[in-house]
Amino acid sequence: MTPPPAIDAALFRFLNQGISNPVLDLVLPWFSGNVLLIPFVSLLALALIWKGGTRGCLFVGMTAAILLLGDNL
User: Fold this and answer.
1) In the chain, what percentage of residues exceed pLDDT 90?
2) Which residues contact 60 (CB under 8 A, 6 or more apart)?
3) Is 35 helix (H, G, I), strand (E, B) or coil?
4) Verdict on whether the full-model pTM lies above 0.70
5) Residue 53: left (phi > 0), alpha (psi -120 to 50), or beta?
């Protein structure tokens, strides 16, 4: 079942115009096209596993599982 077009358009406008953030509008495009993002996230994950102990391992494992399962959706 698809939402009515008026609700869909209103939600689109709210998300893209109503809650915009000028700082994030400048920063996030840099992250999306940067080739250094994957190595940085990998190093961050290794640091969390090394320094975080069990909680760090659980966080990295759950994040990886969510990304792997949710990426196809």
Assistant:
1) 38
2) 45, 48, 49, 52
3) coil
4) no
5) left
